[in-house]
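step: validate -> pass
step: tokenize input -> pass
step: predict -> running
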Amino acid sequence: MKRGKYIFLTGAPGSKWSSVARSIWYSQDVDRSDDKNEYSDGNVRHQGAYWGPGMEYGDKFSVMYLQSKEELEAEFDRPFSGTGVRIIKCHNFAVQLNFIRENWPDCPIVMCDRGDDACLGWWVKAGGFDITYPNYSHYKNFKLMGVNIANQNSGIRSFVAYKPHYRVFNSNEMCSLLGIENSIINQDYFNDDINVYLNWS
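step: predict -> pass
step: emit ->
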């Protein structure tokens, strides 16, 4: 199938999803015009824009079904001005994967999964509520963060259990499956303790 305009990427906080995003973001086939200095946090090396509640983009993405496809795509496109496939990153996609698959059947979905406790521990180690970007203030406290991590991981695991998917072990394999040039960053997902899955109808 010909790849659509977007690559959707999701994972719970602490899933190391940002490292997976970076491992493909540096492909020459990716639109990197969403990059701003304020989007890069020195501790966790975030790169490019993020979408979701409390963020500059995608503030209503916890209830995507309440918006039209045209409204959602306008929000996907807001930080971009270049060409190439666009990586759209949002934690909340993890619990709306069926909606995404139904509405964008030609667009790949990359999902990052780690154990719930491992996610919470890594998120705290990476800076927790103190990091500057993305904004996690809407999670309010550590207990609620733990609940959201569990829900998002469960959404990914349920989707993977019933939908065709690839288990992807490194960034070169991912780029090949996505049909894009290899990134300048080569990441071994398996050695980094990340379960990375790709679904593409």
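step: describe -> Residues 6-199 form one domain.
step: cleanup -> pass
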